[in-house]
Write a structure and sequence with these properties.
The protein is an all-alpha fold. It has one domain (3-142). The chain has helices at residues 3-39, 42-73, 78-103, 107-142. The chain is elongated, with a radius of gyration of 17 Å.
Amino acid sequence: MTEVQENNMMRKAAVTYIIQSLTIIAVMTVLALLSAGVWGSLSMIGVPLAVAAGFQVFACLTYGLAWRAVASSSSASLPTFYLAASGLRMIAGIATVLIYLFLADDEMQIRFFVFLFLAYYLVLLIYDTLYFVRVEKKIHRNA
């Protein structure tokens, strides 16, 4: 595989990751809004949902673009990248939850937030793992 083909494959994988991640976030957000509407708690879920979804949008965009940069420059560094990026995402997630806990004053909103944040985090963690395992297999198969 030529370097141009490899860079195109990395670019396509990063764009696909970002599009699919944003789609998952959008679907989860719609499901959360629909379930809140059914339970009659739509007014309580606005801020927690915005913060949880906003964090994941930022994290997925950052992860996808950083992955593309690392994969294009040195694919041998990808295992280190996966570890470092996961650690940074976890630390940023913990910081976000703690900041929200200090700023929020309504116990029900805090519960909604923690539940939503964990749901987004776990679903996207599973997606990231499955997606990049598949990408790595494809990279090694074509190498």
